[in-house]
Amino acid sequence: MQAKINLKATTFCLMPFPDIDPIIFQIGPFALRWYALAYIAGLMIGYRYMVRLASRAALWPQSPPVTENHIDDLLLWVTAGVIIGGRLGYVAFYNAPYYLDHPGQILVIWAGGMSFHGGALGVIAALLLFAKRKNIPALALGDMTAAAVPIGIFFGRIANFINSELWGRPTDVAWGVVFPNGGPLPRHPSQLYEAGLEGLLIFAVITYFVWRRQAFGKPGLATGLFVLIYGLSRMFLEFFRQPDAHIGFLSGGITMGQVLCVPMIIAGLAFITFALRKT
Fold first, then answer.
1. CA distance 73 to 129
2. What is the pLDDT of residues 103-156, one digit of tens each?
3. Which long-range contacts does 254-257 make (Cβ < 8 Å, 24+ apart)?
């Protein structure tokens, strides 16, 4: 029965995988990849959005706690946090035995292998250090960053789709995709699901609360919304995403991604509760 369903999907219902080279152009040993461009676009657009937030005094209960110069400096810190945290998070959470045996591969970032949860921890560390060094309220800085981060997530997930990585589980839905390195069966384009929920949805919700509900007047609220909605979205989307082959399903059929989302959901609820109770 499954073979008939897949054959039908393959014949009539598939969304074709786009014929896009992961490498945009290459000059000698240098290659510009969509993956790298996604990170650059997310960081630069997020930077411009944070500058705009800092320039709108009406969004803040008093004066904006940061200036454009602060954000210029913060961009470097956040970039380092994303790259270092994302890579080390992937190494630690998803494939530690392999990298213990092949430590030289830890630096081969262009071959893929970044963890959002590790990147989030890296950004948190960068924000806390930066806030302490510049004497800026950490929660206010975190709220601004939370408002901009979904932009980077959106571009990153689109790049995952172009790279044909992190694809979904086999399916017979009309929009199933046969990925070039995912076997003959159509699969959920889970990267696009994540771009929609973890990127567009979170950006829309936080934008509404920041621009319409004065969320910056309740320090920690935007941060809590981001962490909570991301945790819930990722928890749900893991039911469509294929687990990493070297990890597979954990006890009870859950995935490593779902396990890592549990503390995010708890932390998000804690941030929101704190923000709404604080006068």
1. 12
2. 777 777 666 677 878 888 899 999 999 999 999 999 999 999 999 999 999 999
3. 256/93, 256/94
d(CA 54, CA 74): 13
CB contact at 8 A, 255 and 243? yes
Which among 67, 108, 55, 117 is positioned nearest to 89, based on CA atoms? 117
Measured distance CA(238)–CA(134) in Å, rounded: 38
**Residue 33, φ and ψ in degrees, nearest 5:** -105, 155
Q: What are phi and psi of 76, to 5 degrees?
A: -65, -40
Question: Position 34: which residue type?
Answer: W
Residues paired with residue 150 on neighbouring β-strands, in sequence order: none
| Residue linked to tokens 């959106």 | 154
CB-CB contact of 82 with 38 (8 Å): no
* Burial of 135 from C-beta contacts in 10 A (0-12 / 13-18 / 19+): exposed
Per-residue b/e over 221-247, b at no fewer than 16 CB within 10 Å? bbbbbbbbbbbebbbebbebbbbbeee
Alpha-carbon distance of 86 to 113, in angstroms, equals: 8
Phi, psi of 31 (to 5 degrees): -135, 130
- Which residues are within 8 A (CB) of 72 and not within 5 positions of it... i.e. 6 or more apart? none
What 206-210 contacts at long range (C-beta under 8 Å, 24+ apart), as own/partner pairs, is: 206/146, 206/147, 206/150, 207/147, 210/53, 210/59, 210/143, 210/147
Predicted TM-score (pTM) of the model is 0.85
Tens-place pLDDT, residues 216-236: 999 999 999 999 999 999 999
Amino acid at 233: S
Query: Three-state secondary structure along 128-159?
Result: HHHHHHHCCCHHHHHHHHHHHHHHHHHHHHHH
